[in-house]
Design a protein that fits this description.
alpha+beta; OB fold (Dihydrolipoamide Acetyltransferase, E2P); six-stranded mixed sheet; five-stranded antiparallel sheet; 22% helix
Length: 383
C-alpha cells in the first residue's frame, strides 16, 4: 500500500481577506508523480508554495511524513523547487551550478564527494560531458535539466516543479515531459508538478488534482479524470467534450434531445436532470437512416491523423473526431455506444461548457435549418 508522505489538512489561504485556497484536503504519496492542474488563479501555485514552506496557511495544517511542519522554514524541509525561470548562475559553468548547494552544506562535503554527486546527477539528467559548458550557451531544455540537477543533487524527498516547461517550444516541451517522468523514476522520489496544460498532466502523472476557484474538484489517475469527470468543468478542462442536457430515465437509460440512449451509469433518481458528456472520439458517423440523431456538418478541420468536424444538432454544435471526411453541408447520422456516454450530476458549472458554437465566429449565424424543432415530439427509440 502506498505510503503517505505529505498531507494538507483543512488548509485555507487568504490574502487581504480574499480566499485563494478554500479548506483543501490533499494527500500525496511517497514516490508519486502528482500534478496540480487548473486555470490561472485556481490556487495550484499557492498549494505548491505551502508545501515548500514559502507560505504558511491562514488555517489548517501541513504534515510531512506524519510530522506537522507549518512553522518549519523552506531550507529545513526535505523539499526543493524548480521554477519556470531556471535562475542559473550565468557566471558559473554547468558543474558549478549543480555543485553550488553542495558547497554550502554543513558539515562541509569533501571535494571528491561533491564531484561524485554532481557527475552522478548530470548523468541522470542526460548532461554527462557538459560539466564545463557555459550555462548561458545551453538550450532551454538543457538549462531546465541543469536546474533540475541542481535541485536534486541535494537529495530531497520531494521535488516541486512550478510550470517548468512553460518557456519551451512545443516540440521541446513534449520531449521534456518524457524526460521528467524518466528522471522521477530514476530518482525514485516524489514530484509535485504545477501546470495549466492538461496534456502535460495526462502524459506524466500518477495522480492529477483538478482545481478551480481555490477548491479541489477531483483527484484521480489520468484515466479516471478523463473517463469519469465529476462535473462539467473537469470534463471540459481535460480534453475535448460535448456536454449536453439530459434526463436519467432509469438505470442505464438516458434521454438526450428526446431520444433514449443506453449508458452504463446507475444510481440516479428517475427522470433526474443530468449533464451528459460525450467525447468527440466516441461518436460514430453513420448513414442518416442508422443514426439516433441527425445533423449537418458546418465546419471541418484537418488535424493530421483525424478530422475535427463540427456538427449542428438542432442548434447545439457538437465536435466529432474521425478519420473519415464528411464535407461541410453533409447531413449525417451518429451512433454512440453505451460506454461512450458518461453521466454527471448537475453542478454550478452546468450549461457553461460543451457547445462548440464558439469554435468559429461564423457559427453565430449558422444553424441546422432542417432540424426538428424542440417542441416537435420525436418517436421514442427502443434500446
Amino acid at each position: 500500500m502506498p505510503k503517505e508522505l505529505i498531507r494538507l489538512a483543512n488548509c485555507t489561504m487568504a490574502f487581504d481577506g480574499e480566499v485563494v485556497l478554500n479548506n483543501i484536503e490533499l494527500s500525496i504519496n511517497d514516490k508519486e508523480f502528482l500534478t496540480l492542474l487548473g486555470p490561472s488563479g485556481c490556487g495550484k501555485t499557492t498549494t505548491l508554495r505551502i508545501i515548500g514552506g514559502f507560505q504558511k496557511p491562514t488555517s489548517g495544517d501541513v504534515f510531512f511524513d506524519g510530522v506537522r511542519i507549518n512553522d518549519v522554514p523552506p531550507h529545513r524541509r526535505s523539499v526543493n523547487t524548480v521554477f519556470q525561470k531556471y535562475a542559473l548562475f550565468t557566471h558559473l559553468d554547468v558543474f558549478e551550478n549543480v555543485a553550488f548547494g553542495l558547497r554550502l552544506q554543513k558539515p562541509a562535503l569533501s571535494k571528491s564527494e561533491i564531484t561524485s554527486r554532481v557527475l552522478e546527477m548530470l548523468e541522470i539528467v542526460s548532461l554527462k560531458g557538459f560539466e564545463r559548458r557555459d550555462s548561458s550557451s545551453l538550450s532551454g531544455g538543457q538549462q531546465q535539466r541543469v536546474a533540475i540537477a541542481r535541485a536534486l543533487v541535494l537529495r530531497p524527498k520531494v521535488l516541486l516543479l512550478d510550470e517548468p516547461l512553460g518557456a519551451l517550444d512545443l516540440r521541446l516541451r513534449k520531449d521534456m515531459q518524457n524526460e521528467l517522468k524518466r528522471i522521477q523514476q530514476a530518482m525514485d522520489i516524489t514530484f509535485v508538478y504545477v501546470t495549466h496544460d492538461q496534456e502535460e498532466a495526462l502524459a506524466m502523472s500518477d495522480s492529477v488534482v483538478v482545481m478551480d476557484g481555490g477548491e479541489i474538484l477531483q483527484i484521480g489517475t489520468p484515466e479516471d479524470i478523463y473517463n469519469e469527470p465529476v462535473n462539467a468543468f473537469v470534463a471540459d478542462f481535460i480534453g475535448e467534450s460535448n456536454i449536453v442536457d439530459g434526463a436519467m430515465l432509469a438505470d442505464g437509460v438516458v434521454e438526450i434531445f428526446g431520444r433514449r440512449f443506453a449508458c452504463l451509469d446507475r444510481g440516479f433518481a428517475p427522470n433526474e436532470p443530468v449533464d451528459v458528456v460525450i467525447r468527440p472520439e466516441d461518436i460514430d458517423i453513420v448513414p442518416i437512416e442508422d443514426g439516433k440523431l441527425t445533423g449537418t456538418v458546418t465546419n471541418v478541420t484537418f488535424k493530421g491523423v483525424h478530422y475535427d468536424i463540427i456538427v449542428d444538432f438542432r442548434g447545439f454544435k457538437w465536435l466529432i473526431q474521425t478519420t473519415d471526411l464528411s464535407p461541410v453541408g453533409t447531413k449525417i447520422g451518429v451512433k454512440i455506444d453505451p460506454d461512450g456516454i458518461h453521466i454527471m450530476k448537475k453542478s454550478r458549472y452546468s450549461g457553461m461548457f460543451g457547445d462548440y458554437s464558439s469554435y468559429s465566429a461564423e457559427y453565430d449565424d449558422i444553424s441546422d435549418a432542417d432540424a426538428v424543432p424542440e417542441d416537435v415530439s420525436v418517436p421514442e427509440d427502443t434500446l
